[in-house]
Amino acid sequence: MAPLPAKPTMKDRILETADRLFYLQGIRAVGVDTIAAEIGISKRTLYNHFPSKDALISAYLARRFVAPRPSDKSPVEQILGTFDSLERRFSAKDFRGCPFVNAVAELGDDRSVRKVAVAFKESRRLWFRDLLVQLGVAEADALSTQLALLVDGSIAQDLVRNDPAMARAAKDAATVLLKNAGVKIGRNTADKRAARKRKS
Fold it and tell me: Which of 62, 109, 131, 179 has the maximal Cβ count within 10 Å?
């Protein structure tokens, strides 16, 4: 029999609640009073774990700063699969865009928030670059920036249009960029994309 999952600590509960409320309602809109009330604790208890709202915001962004999981898929499949993942995420009712962009939009004068947002965006760009290097792309640095722009652009378009197909359009653009860089797009990748289009 598998062991039961560990019960979340109070610190975990506070952070999970703050994460959900900050992301769905906005960082400025949610005060520590709201977070404490949602959990059913006092503000004093919250401050025992996070001495200020700024500390809680930093922990929230650190929690969202997750590296892509290692994959046994080919570099091309991983790159194009990013846009498939975005399309699924766009279809979720709780999608509110990139938490790092949202944080900068709300707290742009906070240097620590901007710093972590830049670090997150750069880590994603470098992930693309490393995959492109594996593919032997000569201008991997420039192309990785273009792919990162397609990701952010599709997120912005989905938020404005409420249309998950924006991720598919970005994927098509990414495919063109990869082909222009000399990357061979396998038949399996193209077939999967065509099958998805037929289903939608």
Answer: 131
